[in-house]
Design a protein that fits this description.
Layout lengths: L6 H17 L4 H6 L5 H10 L19 H14 L4 H20 L2 H12 L5 E4 L15 E5 L2 E12 L6 E7 L9 E7 L5 E3 L13 E12 L3 E2 L5 H15 L2 H20 L1 E2 L2 E2 L4 H29 L5 H26 L11 H8 L8 H11 L3
Parallel strand pairs: 1-4
Antiparallel strand pairs: 2-3, 3-7, 4-5, 5-8, 6-7, 9-10
Helix pairs in contact: 1-4, 4-8, 5-6, 5-7, 7-9, 7-10, 8-9, 8-10, 9-10, 10-11, 10-12
The chain binds flavin-adenine dinucleotide (FAD).
The site of flavin-adenine dinucleotide has 18 residues, from strand 1, strand 3 and helix 12.
Length: 383
């Protein structure tokens, strides 16, 4: 295992941090307050080349194969440089749960039509798996796809979908054969404007408010055969595959955010004086800083390990679950520690400290809750 980065990758990381700091940090406070998605910032990311990192040649990508290590590093840099945790989260959601499954399982026509569009910012994609009654137990989904001549008729509803309200396309999963449970789950690509497909408006939420979030509804929605993703019944395999990448890359930005948070916390506890000395000299405070550092570095090792394994197309089910559990829980705990260290000022939104805590909580829920990650780990340990 070799986690050393080459000069080119380190240079790219530095450049990406600069790009994010200079281009993506204006108006974050207000955008969070008003739950505003910035199409302009999304397009800046396209121009910089973020979305195309999850595509391949000749469909808008730079190479025949996705360089997952460089992409992970770039997303870490985005999380560090961009104070809005929502934007990197939304980018990751599209890149790893929409672009990636199309790269891996899409037909030539689908790649031409959708990958180019997402890499160049003409299309925004979302991923619809969860339903009201099928969250952790997602393969008990009730959305159905009935075969008819030339395609399928979809009925059902998907919930809590990142980018759902504004997406131009959605990779969604439905049952083509409810009798066989997860073996009857099939993937489809649905386009905005298809008859019977509708999207809710943005739903107000606790954190990552700059990312639209909502439901996708299917009411006798006809989807042509050419929009079947992979084979009929391959939905479970596609999803399991996608989730490993998702758990790796979606959290890379959070690692960057945790590093930024730690640096800001250190600077503050050095500067802030109480009882005639810097509060960082009090062991209760410095212990919290030490714990934040430990969480950051253990998360970093797990992240790089998963990226390294997936970059070589190796399975990483256990490692991805360990990473998802560790990094998401760490960001929540460290965000709370940052609040404790900053005292009352942390409670005021204007100081941009409490937002991390609100943003962090989503990560212990999406892509499999922490309980589900523990279940995966325990199962793989034979329990
Ligand atoms: C910010 C955010 C973004 C999201 N984006 C998307 C998206 O883009 N696309 C999408 O499809 N979904 C998305 N989701 C939905 C997310 O994947 C689900 O919320 C998640 O899988 C949990 O499902 P649930 O909400 O139905 O909770 P439930 O499954 O009802 O879980 C409730 C509680 O029960 C526990 N629980 C359930 N089953 C078990 C078990 N077997 N063992 C132990 N504990 C268990 C859970 O851990 C949790 O504590 C998003 C969610 C959030 C918060």
């Amino acid at each position: 295992m070799d986690f050393s980065w080459n000069e080119e990758q380190l240079e790219f990381k530095k450049r990406t941090i600069k790009f994010a700091q200079n281009e993506l940090c204006s108006n974050v406070l207000n955008a969070d307050k008003t739950s505003q998605f910035s199409t302009k910032d999304w397009k800046k990311c396209v121009a910089y080349g973020i979305q195309k990192m999850a595509s391949i040649k000749p469909y808008g990508g730079a190479a025949d194969k996705i360089d997952l290590l460089s992409a992970t590093l770039a997303m870490e840099a985005m999380g560090y440089g961009c104070k809005d945790n929502g934007l990197p989260f939304a980018l990751n959601a599209q890149m790893w749960t929409v672009q990636m499954p199309i790269v891996q399982f899409g037909s030539k026509l689908q790649k031409e039509k959708y990958l180019n569009g997402m890499a160049t910012g003409k299309l925004i994609g979302c991923h619809g798996l969860t339903e009201e009654n099928a969250g952790s137990d997602v393969f008990s989904m009730q959305t159905t796809a009935t075969k008819v001549e030339g395609g399928y008729i979809l009925n059902g509803k998907k919930c809590y979908i990142t980018l759902g309200p504004i997406a131009d396309i959605a990779v969604i999963f439905a049952s083509t054969n409810p009798k066989v449970g997860k073996w009857g789950i099939t993937g489809f690509i649905v386009e905005k404007g298809m008859k019977g497909f509708s999207q809710s408006s943005n739903k107000e939420k606790m954190g990552m408010r700059t990312v639209p979030f909502g439901d996708l509804m299917f009411d006798d929605c006809f989807v042509p055969d050419e929009n079947l993703l992979g084979k009929e019944g391959a939905g479970w395999a596609i999803t399991s595959h996608t989730l490993e990448y998702d758990r790796c890359c979606i959290l890379a930005s959070q690692l960057g955010a945790m590093e930024r948070q730690l640096e800001e916390s250190i600077a503050f506890v050095k500067k802030r004086k109480q009882f005639g000395k810097s509060i960082g000299e009090f062991q209760s405070v410095s212990n919290r800083i030490a714990d934040m550092k430990l969480r950051l570095e253990t998360s970093r090792l797990l992240l790089y390990q998963v990226a390294w394994l997936k970059n070589q197309d190796k399975p990483a089910m256990m490692e991805a679950a360990l990473l998802k559990l560790q990094l998401s829980e760490s960001f929540v705990t460290s965000s709370l520690d940052a609040m404790r260290n900053n005292g009352g000022r942390a409670y005021l939104s204007e100081n941009e400290i409490e937002r991390n805590l609100r943003d962090a909580v989503g990560s212990i829920l999406y892509a499999g809750t922490s309980d589900i990650q523990r279940n995966i780990i325990a199962n793989l340990l034979g329990l």
